[in-house]
Specification:
Layout (H helix, E strand, L loop, with lengths): L2 H14 L5 E3 L5 E3 L12 E7 L7 H14 L3 E10 L12 E10 L4 E9 L5 E6 L12 E8 L6 E8 L6 H16 L5 E6 L5 H13 L3 E2 L4 H4 L12 E6 L2 E2 L5 E2 L11 E6 L7
Parallel strand pairs: 3-4, 9-10
Antiparallel strand pairs: 1-5, 2-5, 3-15, 4-6, 5-6, 7-8, 8-9, 10-12, 11-12, 13-15, 14-15
Helix pairs in contact: 3-4
C-alpha cells in the first residue's frame, strides 16, 4: 500500500474507532449462579460451541439459541464474541444455567462489554482468565480465554474446560505465544479436558501450529462428518476456524453436529456429546 493511501486509511480508522472508545480491562469475571445441581453426569457431557458475533441482543439470535437449548439441552456452553450491557441485564430470563463471563474490553460508546461466555448446569470449582500479552490492531484490545473446572458424577476427577478466542490480524509468532500460554494451563491438568472456541485458523500455518500444540497435549479434535465439516466457518478455502478438542473422554457416536440452519451469526453452532470412563475402573 502506498504511503499516502496508508495515511488516509489510518486517518479514517482513527476517526471512526478512536483510541478511547475501547477500554481494556483487568482480568475479571461476571458470574451468575442459577442452578442447585452440583455435578455433571459423566455419561452425558453435552457441549455447544459458538461464536455468536455479538448477536445475543438480537431477537433472531435469542429465538435460535432458545431452540438449541430446548432441543439439545447442553451441559456446557462456550460462546465467543458475547456482549453484556453495562446496565442491569436480564440473562436469567433466557438462560437458567450458571454462567461466567470474561470481558476483554468495554465499548465506551455503546456501553457494552464484549468477551468470552461459559455456561454450565453447575458452578465451576475453579475459574481463571487468561489475557493475551499482545493486542489486535485498530481496536487495540487483547484476546481472552476462560478456564473453568467442573465436578463430574464419577467423582474421581474434575473436567477442565477452556473457552478461547485466539488472536487475529497479528503475526504468526503472537498467535503461537497465546497458544503456548494456554498449553501451560492445559498441561497441568491430569483429568479430562475440553478445549473449545474460535481459533482463527484461517491459514494453513496457523492450523499447523494449533495441531502441534494440541497433539503435544494429547488432545483429539472432534471429527465432524464431511457434509458437516464443510459447514464450519472458514475464509474462502481456509481450514475451519471453530474447533472442539478433548482428552480422556469418548465422543458419543453421531453426536457431532454443525447446525447449518442457524443463520443469526456468521459462525455455525457446533455440538458434541462426551462420556467419561474412569480408566482405573477398567
Amino acid at each position: 500500500m502506498m504511503p499516502n493511501i496508508q495515511e488516509h486509511v489510518n486517518t479514517l480508522v482513527t476517526k471512526f474507532v478512536p483510541s478511547y472508545r475501547f477500554l481494556r480491562l483487568q482480568e475479571l469475571t461476571i458470574d451468575k449462579n442459577n442452578s442447585l445441581q452440583t455435578e455433571i453426569n459423566s455419561n452425558s457431557i453435552k457441549v455447544l460451541n459458538w461464536n455468536i458475533a455479538k448477536q445475543n441482543y438480537n431477537k433472531t439470535w435469542l429465538k435460535d439459541f432458545s431452540i438449541i437449548i430446548e432441543t439439545y439441552q447442553p451441559n456446557l456452553i462456550f460462546l465467543q464474541e458475547f456482549s453484556l450491557k453495562l446496565e442491569a441485564d436480564k440473562l436469567e430470563t433466557w438462560l437458567k444455567m450458571n454462567w461466567n463471563f470474561a470481558p476483554n474490553f468495554v465499548d465506551i460508546h455503546h456501553q457494552i462489554y464484549s468477551g468470552i461466555f461459559t455456561a454450565a448446569t453447575i458452578s465451576p470449582v475453579t475459574k481463571k482468565v487468561i489475557t493475551t500479552k499482545h493486542y489486535e490492531p485498530i481496536v487495540r484490545t487483547p484476546k481472552i480465554s476462560l478456564v473453568t473446572e467442573y465436578l463430574l458424577s464419577d467423582k474421581s476427577t474434575t473436567l477442565l474446560t477452556v473457552n478461547s478466542h485466539l488472536i487475529n490480524f497479528v503475526d504468526l509468532n503472537k498467535f503461537k505465544i497465546q497458544l503456548n500460554e494456554l498449553e501451560l494451563v492445559l498441561s497441568t491438568h491430569r483429568g479430562p479436558i475440553i478445549f473449545s472456541g474460535d481459533f482463527n485458523t484461517w491459514s494453513q500455518k496457523r492450523a499447523v501450529i494449533l495441531n502441534q500444540v494440541t497433539t503435544q497435549l494429547g488432545l483429539t479434535p472432534v471429527i465432524f462428518a464431511p457434509h458437516e465439516q464443510e459447514k464450519i466457518k472458514r475464509f474462502l478455502l481456509s481450514p475451519p476456524l471453530d474447533h472442539i478438542f478433548y482428552r480422556n473422554l469418548n465422543v458419543k457416536k453421531a453426536s457431532a453436529k454443525v447446525l447449518d440452519q442457524i443463520c443469526s451469526s456468521d459462525h455455525k453452532p457446533l455440538l458434541s456429546e462426551f462420556t467419561y470412563i474412569n480408566p482405573q475402573k477398567d
